[in-house]
Amino acid sequence: MPRDYFRPATIVMGSRLRYNKCMSKLDYFLLCESVIRDADGKLTIVNIFDILNVADFPGVPSKFALVFGAFLDDSDLKGKEVTFDMQVLDKKGEVIVSSKGSGSNTDNLKKHRHIVASIDLAGQVPLEGAGIYSMRLYINDQLISEKNFEVVKKPQEGKK
């Protein structure tokens, strides 16, 4: 079966997962190299990490993607659309990349209450230097998650 790389702000709504009121609203929010979706809608999340090695600064990673899955409650489903915003922040807390998306509040979404989205940011995230950077996820303008990742200079091979 052919694979299809997720396009920026791609959203898949109404997966076959069931809503469970005991589960956390956020199922996962991950930083990885890439996200692949097969013809059946199944995800392959490639190389999850929280430390990013960069050859030189300033630098732009050639592999960088964000993906999240969340269960929605009734308050999320009141409007006609569910919106999300995935952001990458620099060491000072300034937004350097933001990708917004939305999905229709369909009967399928109301039934399954699960939303999955990913964004491929390869070559789009400027990193000025080593340090702690952040990523944020908003759903319907509400901050759902903020996670940190570390950027370090990749050791050069053959040098001591």
Give a brief outline of the structure.
With 160 residues, this protein is mainly beta.
Question: Could you characterize the architecture of this molecule?
Answer:
By secondary structure, the protein is mainly beta. The protein has one domain (3-152): Immunoglobulin-like. Helices cover 4% and strands 52% of the residues. The chain has 1 helix and 11 strands; from the N terminus they run E-E-E-E-E-E-E-E-H-E-E-E. It has one helix spanning 107-112, and strands at 3-5, 10-13, 26-38, 43-48, 51-54, 65-71, 81-89, 95-104, 114-120, 131-139, 142-153. Strands 1, 2, 3, 4, 6 and 9 form a 6-stranded antiparallel beta sheet that branches. The chain is globular and about 55 Å long. Mean pLDDT is 77; it is low at 1-24.
N to C succession of SSEs: EEEEEEEEHEEE
As a percent range, the share of helical residues equals: under 10%
**CATH architecture name:** Sandwich
Low-confidence stretches: 1-24
Tally of individual domains: 1
Q: Which of globular, elongated, flat, extended, rod-shaped describes the shape?
A: globular
Radius of gyration: 17 Å
Look at the helices and sheets and give the structural class.
Answer: mainly beta
CATH fold group: Immunoglobulin-like
**Separation of the first and last Cα atoms:** 46 Å
What count of helical segments does DSSP give? 1
Percentage beta strand: over 45%
Mean pLDDT across residues = 77
Total strands: 11
Would you state the CATH class?
A: Mainly Beta
Largest beta-sheet details: 6 strands, antiparallel
